[in-house]
Amino acid sequence: MRFKYxxxxxxxxxxxxxxxxxxxEVAASIRSELISSVRRIDNTGTTPQLATxxxxxxxxxQTYVSMKHDDCEEVGIATRDIEIDPEAPAAELFDTxxxxxxxxxxxxxxxxxxxxxxxxxxxxxxxxxxKKDVDGFHPENVGRLVAGQARYKPCTPHGIQKLxxxxxxxxxxxxxxxxxxxxxxxxxxxNLLIQKTxxxxxxxxxxxxxxxxLASKTRTADIVIAAAGVPEMIDGDMLSSxxxxxxxxxxxxxxxxxxxxxxxxxxxSAAEKADAITPVPGGVGPMTRAMLLWNTVKAxxxxxxxxxxxx
Length: 311
Ligand code: GUN
What we know:
Elements: E1 6-8, E2 18-20, H1 23-42, E3 49-54, H2 59-75, E4 78-83, H3 90-102, E5 108-111, H4 121-127, H5 139-146, H6 155-166, E6 175-179, H7 186-194, E7 203-207, H8 214-218, E8 223-226, E9 243-247, E10 251-255, E11 258-262, H9 267-273, E12 274-277, H10 284-304
Parallel strand pairs: 2-12, 3-4, 3-5, 6-7, 6-8, 8-9, 9-12
Antiparallel strand pairs: 1-2, 10-11
Helix pairs in contact: 1-10, 2-10, 6-7, 6-10
The structure holds guanine.
GO biological process, one term: methionine biosynthetic process
Subunit structure: Homodimer.
Pathway: One-carbon metabolism; tetrahydrofolate interconversion
């Protein structure tokens, strides 16, 4: 696979060159490489299929789910789109998950988070068949990841690992500061980075809302991965020159003319210090979606006993 980098020349006044790590482009390249794996599975008479279950009214969640369906369509993965009234009893969601678990034509099951307050999220995560858990959130899959026997790497951290590789950023021996300790990003990210594998072997510090003097930690980092969900909380003053920045945040903030999306990193001041940086949007987001396809193809390959090499 070839990856191209786009130099951001107008950030070059204080240093040689800051590279923009283009997640849109890397994700497109992964999608196009997945097409042949999907075809090989299709040739056995089984089309890989992802089922999504949405149980909330949040327009952002609806958009995310519909983008996941579009991505599936692009690579030839079939989809099933299930919506459950957010007021419905939790049992309706559990029954739906049970049916999808039992359906051999479905290879991946994704229950979009967040869920309504009356539904116990942890119970839902435990309910999804671990072999169909393409999010990688089931406790069995979390345990496997920690033990270095990952079945499905969670999509956002896996996508970040791919982005770092695509940008030729060496993690081995690097000091990485992960900001955020969520089950979706922070914790699995740290776990992936400390594995004895390519894209791992890093020294990882996990910071969070109770960490003291965050700047003293981020200034020591070769790589900063910001996943706190706080708009522009990391700026150039908190970073050392030559750092690589991965911005996981997608925050909608009000502006004089309406609203805009910003990351957890103040892009312009951080870019003045950075060797490489992801944009928001167009950095981590497309990679998360690409890795969901990856996990779905992997699930279908295992179910159909097709041996494939994923990109
Ligand atoms: N909500 C926000 N991110 C995610 C994700 O990665 N998976 C699921 N299932 N829900 C989410």
